[in-house]
């Protein structure tokens, strides 16, 4: 995914549920590429792959849009290691029955509920190689966001989308929900006939007459990448392997915005080897989607907030595309290794952007990223969560989503640029190509990567890089490469001039891109008067900006400078957009004053139904929402 924004909170209180531990003794069936020894301890899954693990999933589901329920059957091919049971993760699901391949009922029990959900334990004899679970989703199926017609662009039909990362796939499919598990899948989905269904799999480009759709994913993927969207969706072709899905009101605009997608795929392949997922399509979701993008294979899920009208925010597409290698092909084995997904992807994304848009563009991106990292490192330290500034995380006992911050993205990126600088681009690129090739369709731990790095790329005797400080210690090491941008230097000059009293209209801003505006707004001094805020707004039209990144950065300045003329537009933005990266800083800034907290809570009351659970979980915490709305008990 792109750009998780940090959330300041203390560790969850839920009990740690320990998963598989002992190294399995039995050798695996030769046919299966994944072997028991590929599985490592994942504290965020109750599954025990040392007893039995899934290799393939067949879904047969029916989507009830008005009842807001998915029901049906999930069938699994398993590798049974003869220990008498298989364990699935579930949360918020009603398990109706469990059967073996011959239709014989299998005895099953649900364990205690924790923040990880309830483990489903199924008794299996040594002969069982396939089983099925009939189930339905419920109110706690947090992966699912059901939108009323009013919450969509078209306003006529309801919409549904799923978000699986990090541990939400278990809320709509009983599954061994660890990124270290890999499966292929097929799906048969029945939806209302007026709606279209797409998944992270092979998709049709036209609507079926009866609402029935079939999917297959023949590459082995971790369960968090299983994804589904149902709505009034249309398709537009972009290139030979690329296209876009969106609601009819947005689909042409989206196709225009993403016209460089095919070039990006070509650039990515030139850098790090063949694209292995047949097609690369994007679906633009309604604005409540909590992330910038989610790299669901073959079909990236994206926020409409990257549609700016001028293609200025499509670096996000480069990011999600890059995940087709880092993340989807070579996958973090646990969420503690999240930087292996995101740090590599940020590095790769910038290399794609450099190839497609040039060095200036990539440099600006790098500086903006470093600014975000600096802020996150500072905020985490202030909050007493310095431990989360290590690349290798320790998220045991809490929702992994809480520890997934800019650190994985931008400190990870900084580390890889250091390796590039130390070894030379040519050698480093060859190393990365080899890495993706060698570990394709496998999961990776931090330790395994570091061993591979030392073996394949670095001189083992060289200690100057201080590798351990980068991976296992907090903060940003002193040898972090300096990032700089020629174009931002010109923006800095403009900031100095404006700060010294030069009127806004006299600044040389004619050829600025969205990145330069973001840098300008971030670099403004503190304590700007209402009069000068109004001057900026009148000259540059920030409050009415159709570019979400510019509007967001402007609203941050408005809150900091109590520029309340912009608050109606700020409220509109917060009610309309559900992208957590924007919500968290804005609500947090508002909540820092008494009056602002009142404003924030008033807006949130109206906005909350528009947000996905990923966002409400964070913002509830920021605004003390649950405490406020809980009934008083006597
Ligand atoms: Zn990402």
Provide keyphrases for this structure.
634 residues, alpha+beta, Immunoglobulin-like, Neutral Protease, domain 2, Serine Threonine Protein Phosphatase 5, Tetratricopeptide repeat, six-stranded mixed beta sheet, five-stranded mixed beta sheet, 18 helices, binds zinc ion
Summarize the structure.
This protein is of the alpha+beta class and 634 residues long. It has three domains: 46-322, Immunoglobulin-like; 331-472, Neutral Protease, domain 2 (Orthogonal Bundle), CATH 1.10.390.10; 490-629, Peptidase M1, leukotriene A4 hydrolase/aminopeptidase C-terminal domain (Serine Threonine Protein Phosphatase 5, Tetratricopeptide repeat, Alpha Horseshoe).
Structural description of this entry:
- The chain is of the alpha+beta class and 634 residues long.
- The protein has three domains: 46-322, tricorn interacting facor f3 domain (Immunoglobulin-like, Sandwich); 331-472, Neutral Protease Domain 2 (Neutral Protease, domain 2, Orthogonal Bundle); 490-629, Peptidase M1, leukotriene A4 hydrolase/aminopeptidase C-terminal domain (Serine Threonine Protein Phosphatase 5, Tetratricopeptide repeat, Alpha Horseshoe).
- Helices cover 35% and strands 18% of the residues.
- It has 18 helices and 20 strands.
- It has a six-stranded mixed beta sheet with strand order 4-7-2-1-10-12, with no helix packed on it. A five-stranded mixed beta sheet has the order 14-15-16-18-17. Strands 8-9-13-11 form a four-stranded antiparallel beta sheet, with no helix packed on it.
- Helix 2 (261-272) packs across helix 4 (338-357) and helix 5 runs parallel beside helix 11 (514-523).
- The radius of gyration is 24 Å and the shape is globular.
- Residues 4-32 have low confidence and may be disordered.
- The structure holds zinc ion.
- Zinc ion binds at residues 1-2, 319, 323, 342, 345.
